[in-house]
Amino acid sequence: MSETEDRFNNFDEDIINKLYDTAMAIRNENHDNPNNKTIFSSVNKRMAVTDAAMHIAYILTELKDKVLVVNLDSRSTPAVEEYIHSKAKPNLFTTLRNSMFLSEAINHSAFEKLDIIHVEEMDEEELMAKFSDYNILSKLSPLKSYYDHIFLIGPPFEECENYGAFLELADSAVTVISAKKNDRQELNQYLQKINLFNVKSFGILRKAD
Amino acid sequence: MYFLKKNLLNIIIWTLALGVVGTAVNFFIPPSSTTYEEYYTLESGLEPNTIANLNIQFNETVNKASDNILVAAADGQSGSDILHLTITTEPGINYNSIQAQAMDILAEEGVVTTDSTAPNVYETQNDALKIIIILLSLLIGAGIGIVTALSNRNISTEEDIEHYLGERTLGTF
């Protein structure tokens, strides 16, 4: 780790240890399926999703993998920034308005192998319209040539009516739940949605509250 | 089967807890009847028909107070100066009032008492009602336990994740 990275490192060592196996599982899966894009999401645990995605991304960069995090939940931007200190302004659609290439929206972080794209803050209806207008999926896939892993941070499932728009961007999913307070009916509903979009579920990560 | 495995302990705890409540309630259930056994020393020996007459009088008066029990009954041997009086009460029947009426009847029959012993008191517990209360509480407890378990949709263990969601657990952080 460089001196700059060390200075900005807010990652929790305990969480890193606990998520190491998960990171390795994702790494192996993505090694077998190089086009894999993984969405991190939950029914209602926004912060836990950010924590999990960022720590796993960090573990993978420590293993010399290149990771791109596409933050599709504008309300998670401050939390993501606390980890990576890119000081990047949300620019996904702003960039696509002027350019054909999503790569131009990529911002570098304080960590050499960890890059970020934030989505701008907007209501769900507008977001869905922009997803459809700019065909994000087709622009996201070519980035796999530059990165070993692409992680998508999805907003909480219960906050979006059209969650399919996020799921269709992903090939695999990691679902984060609260270890203590959750609802299996809602979780089943969400997992069914994942299956519906043919997204492979890696499994469940439990956040101890 | 998994439902039982996961919730059996809770259901048992609820059942036992309500069972304890039922048992506590039983402490407040009055006895089904209380028998007061009294012995009186008479001034003179009993006449041959006195006991029969007393019981007829009791049947025509105080014994009409209950359909379930014999409220008052007299006993004694002809010529003996000891009269054995049994008064049985149940909820709603007052001992003092029955005793006073019985003493009036004795006086009407010309029986004069000179001395009496303190009554021996025997309580007959309402066992059937108590058993029903305990069984009902256990049943209600089991019911509450099952309803609580059914309404708990929380996933709390890795086994739950596998069983209810068909997913593997990647870890806990």
UniProtKB/TrEMBL annotation, chain A:
Q: Which InterPro entries match?
A: AAA_dom, P-loop_NTPase
Please state every residue range assigned to the domain named AAA.
50-198
Highest taxon listed in the record's lineage: Bacteria
**Protein name per Swiss-Prot or TrEMBL:** AAA family ATPase
UniProtKB/TrEMBL annotation, chain B:
Name of the protein: Polysaccharide chain length determinant N-terminal domain-containing protein
The lineage's top-level taxon is Bacteria
Annotated membrane-spanning segments are 7-29, 128-150
The keyword Membrane appears for this protein: yes
Q: Which organism is it from?
A: Jeotgalicoccus nanhaiensis
Q: Which UniProt keywords apply?
A: Membrane, Transmembrane, Transmembrane helix
